[in-house]
Specification:
- The chain folds into two domains: about 80 residues; about 230 residues, BirA Bifunctional Protein, domain 2, CATH 3.30.930.10.
- Helix 5 crosses helix 8.
- The strands form two sheets. A seven-stranded mixed β-sheet has the order 1-5-6-10-9-8-7, sandwiched between helices.
- It starts with a helix and ends with a helix.
- The protein has eleven helices and ten strands.
- The protein is rod-shaped, with a radius of gyration of 43 Å.
- It is an alpha+beta fold and about 325 residues long.
- Bound molecules: 3,4-dihydroxyphenylalanine.
- The site of 3,4-dihydroxyphenylalanine (DAH) has 11 residues, from strand 9 and strand 10.
């Protein structure tokens, strides 16, 4: 066996050792029980006395060399794992979660309300938040002396006496009826503004959904039917509805509409003030004067209209007791919907 050749082989082999497993194979090949060194050692007894000492020494040197090479490689492989961690990623580590956003609860309720009316054939129309005094009041048969026209009930634009922030979504009735011909079935979602002091049930800005339907032979019973479908869709099929006579300048007759209290089911509790009923909207048959203002013949056409506060519907639906929660942007609240 040529010892010099073995040295060369070792040099070549050790270059290719890049893992602990490979190093173990290397060690076995040269230093194992059936390895090169063992084989060389087994030759020694067969040699003549003179040869034995010199050969034995060579084998020893080879053994030492191998131990040295293996030791060095071991050191190298031991530090490598650490440097590896530094440069590569730890696949077992939890990732950075992407927070998914969601629609604001008011947007969800607004969408739900519009979807219910969509299913009954109503289309969605929007109007501007800056409105003319005419559309917000006059066109809706609200007289000049009506208290809602006072500056403490409506935000007027300072340098434009005839412009204001709409105080309800009803002015879109005027806009849509002027632009389109009956039959009309429209819902109007949007923001409205009133100079109210902010408290648990008031906000200077809130949302309404207006609805109206104009055609020949529209009767109060049509209004009751449509609103009945709506109330059951939002609050459940067991909900009851009642119409109380009321006054609005733009409808005649007019009514305030209540649903049976969703908390006590009509028994009377603190939420409904022991009445068993909760007011949810105003409604009525469109006043002939409104039709005249927009150029629709009140002898040929009749129609109904209604308007509701979205915050109120959302608060009842989810049992929320403070309107300010909707506008504070507190994620602990918003994430619940
Ligand atoms: N505009 C009314 C308000 O803001 C709500 C309303 C009542 C709208 C009766 C209507 C209606 O269309 O018929 O208080």
């Amino acid at each position: 066996m040529d010892i010099e050749a073995i040295y060369l082989e070792i040099e070549a082999d050790i270059q290719n050792v890049n893992s602990r497993e490979a190093l173990e194979l290397f060690r076995l090949k040269y230093l194992g029980r059936k390895g090169a060194v063992a084989e060389l050692t087994s030759i020694i007894p067969t040699l003549s006395k003179e040869e034995r000492a010199a050969f034995g020494q060579k084998v020893n040197s080879l053994k030492n060399k191998l131990s040295e090479v293996v030791g060095e490689k071991e050191k190298l492989l031991n530090v490598q794992p650490e440097t590896k961690i530094k440069v590569s990623c730890d696949l077992g580590m939890p990732g950075i979660a992407q927070e998914l956003g969601q629609l604001h609860p008011l947007t969800q309720v607004l969408d739900e309300i519009c979807a219910i009316f969509n299913r009954m054939g109503f289309s969605v129309v929007e109007g501007p938040e800056i409105e003319t005094e005419y559309n917000n009041f006059t066109g809706l048969n609200i007289p000049l002396e009506h208290p809602s026209r006072e500056a403490f009930d409506t935000f007027y634009l300072k340098d434009y006496a005839k412009l204001l922030l709409r105080s309800h979504t009803s002015p879109v009735q005027v806009r849509a009826m002027k632009e389109r011909k009956p039959p009309l079935a429209i819902v109007v979602p949007g923001r409205v503004y009133r100079p109210d002091a902010v408290d648990a049930s008031h906000s200077f800005m809130f949302h309404q959904v207006e609805g109206f339907l104009v055609d020949e032979n529209i009767r109060f019973s049509d209004l009751k039917g449509v609103l009945g479908v709506f109330a059951k869709a939002v609050f459940g099929k067991d909900i009851k509805m009642r119409f109380r006579p009321h006054f609005f300048p733009f409808t005649e007759p007019s009514a305030e509409v209540d649903i049976s209290c969703i908390i006590c089911k009509g028994q009377g509790c603190s939420v409904c003030g022991k009445k068993g009923w909760l007011e949810i909207l105003g409604a009525g048959l469109i006043h002939p004067q409104v039709f005249k203002q927009v150029g629709i013949d009140p002898k040929k056409y009749t129609g109904f209209a209604f308007g509701m506060g979205v915050e109120r519907i959302a608060m009842l639906k989810y049992g929320i007791n403070d309107i300010r929660l909707f506008f504070e942007n507190d994620l602990r609240f918003l994430k619940q919907f």
